[in-house]
């Protein structure tokens, strides 16, 4: 697993400075385009280009099952995970629609379904047949964690084969908000009740039960939760580990990342705790309606592009935010300067 600790180069500071200087010369009051100006400058630094662009987008949705589903923490049966994988493969999910709209290259990866699916357009890269129930023991073995992280690294290799300029990671796995809530609570040292939300649509009393399951697991595993990797191995899911591995690998390769919602942001938090240099390569698509997401974003010092009360996952919120980054680039590249337009500066 040594690759996850390899150094990550920072985005180019000189390109960032030049982009900021250009923003001061465009026909608008300084700062009037808000976050879009910062996005353009950051992308210029990441791409080492005076004229940044986001045209080639790669979306990988990682799917896996969770043993913690046995505790009745989801409103949907575990069979929905594989059923949704088939839906992704057929192009019928929300993220498929959005991927087509933005012209993204889309793939779905079986990172650890209980039962593999025999579909030619599902990539089988399995860390196991679902995680173990972390209410009773660690979610995965060390070798499974190592494999799951590498699943994400291989997805980045495929993205680069398609000359991607932006990576979006999505996830699917019944009960994965339980895993993500446990991970966030452990990383942020917060009570489970402050992080745990409705997930797939639980009622208040069901949310309380879900939080109690997480709290009991955190208590039973407290001696193990001393490093980010130990936390991920003990409480995580294969698809969450794959996302974390993808985020680290993308940053190592200089590929910007657009992070999706709560589960993806928890993976980003773990990635940043494992290899802090990767955080400089993250954009955040949205703040979801899931209870713990704002706390995770705060820990990441993140400013999401959208707030749409979404909580679907799949990479859908990030895909929806892609046009914001594209428009930031177009504004940066195509607006006239005061000198070009013959407009007087203040």
Task: Chart the SSEs and their pairings.
Blueprint: H1 13-25, H2 35-47, E1 57-64, H3 79-90, H4 94-102, E2 105-112, E3 122-124, H5 142-161, E4 166-172, H6 176-188, H7 204-220, H8 228-235, H9 238-252, E5 257-259, H10 262-274, E6 282-284, H11 293-299, H12 316-334, H13 338-341
Parallel strand pairs: 1-2, 1-4, 2-3, 4-5, 5-6
Helix pairs in contact: 1-2, 2-12, 4-12, 5-9, 6-7, 6-8, 6-10, 9-10, 10-11
Binned strand content: 5-15%
Number of beta-strand segments = 6
CATH architecture: 3-Layer(aba) Sandwich
Q: CATH homologous superfamily, by name?
A: Nicotinate-nucleotide-dimethylbenzimidazole phosphoribosyltransferase (CobT), large domain
Q: Which consecutive residue ranges, at least 5 long each, have pLDDT under 50? A: none
From the alpha-carbon coordinates, what is the Rg to the nearest angstrom? 20 Å
Q: Pairing-aware structural class of the strands and helices? A: alpha/beta
Main beta-sheet annotation: 6 strands, parallel
CATH class: Alpha Beta
Identify the strand order in the major beta sheet.
Answer: 3-2-1-4-5-6
Average pLDDT rating: 97
Shape: globular
> Helix and strand succession?
HHEHHEEHEHHHHEHEHHH
- Return the domain count: 1
N- and C-termini, Cα separation: 55 Å
Name the helicity range: 40-55%
Q: Which topology does CATH recognise?
A: Rossmann fold
Helix run count: 13
């Amino acid at each position: 697993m040594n690759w996850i600790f390899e150094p990550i180069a920072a985005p180019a500071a000189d390109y960032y400075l030049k982009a900021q200087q250009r923003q001061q010369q465009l026909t608008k009051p300084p700062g009037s385009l808000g976050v879009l100006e910062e996005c353009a400058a950051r992308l210029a630094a990441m791409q080492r280009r005076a004229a940044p662009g986001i045209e080639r987008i790669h979306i990988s949705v990682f799917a896996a099952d969770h043993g913690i589903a046995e505790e009745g923490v989801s409103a949907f049966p575990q069979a929905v995970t594989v059923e949704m994988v088939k839906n992704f493969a057929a192009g019928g999910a929300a993220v498929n629609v959005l991927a087509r709209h933005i012209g993204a290259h889309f793939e779905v990866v079986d990172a650890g379904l209980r039962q593999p699916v025999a579909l030619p357009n599902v990539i089988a890269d399995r860390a196991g047949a679902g995680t173990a129930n972390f209410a009773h023991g660690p979610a995965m073995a060390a070798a499974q964690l190592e494999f799951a992280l590498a699943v994400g690294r291989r997805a980045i290799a495929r993205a680069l084969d398609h000359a991607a300029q932006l990576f979006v990671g999505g996830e699917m796995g019944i009960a994965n908000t339980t895993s993500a809530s446990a991970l966030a609570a452990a990383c942020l040292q917060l009570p489970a009740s402050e992080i745990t939300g409705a997930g797939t649509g639980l009622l208040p009393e069901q949310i309380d039960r879900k939080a109690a399951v997480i709290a009991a697991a955190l208590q039973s595993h407290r001696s193990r939760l001393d490093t980010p990797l130990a936390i991920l191995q003990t409480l995580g899911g294969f698809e969450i580990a794959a996302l974390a591995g993808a985020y680290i690998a993308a940053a190592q390769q200089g590929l910007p990342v657009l992070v999706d919602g709560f589960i993806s942001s928890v993976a980003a938090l773990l990635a940043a705790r494992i290899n802090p240099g990767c955080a400089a390569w993250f954009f955040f698509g949205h703040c979801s309606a899931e209870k713990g997401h704002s706390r995770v974003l705060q820990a990441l010092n993140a400013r999401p592009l959208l707030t749409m009360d979404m909580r679907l996952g799949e990479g859908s919120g990030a895909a929806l935010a892609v046009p914001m980054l594209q428009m930031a680039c177009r504004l940066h590249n195509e607006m006239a300067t005061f000198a070009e337009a013959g407009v007087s500066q203040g």
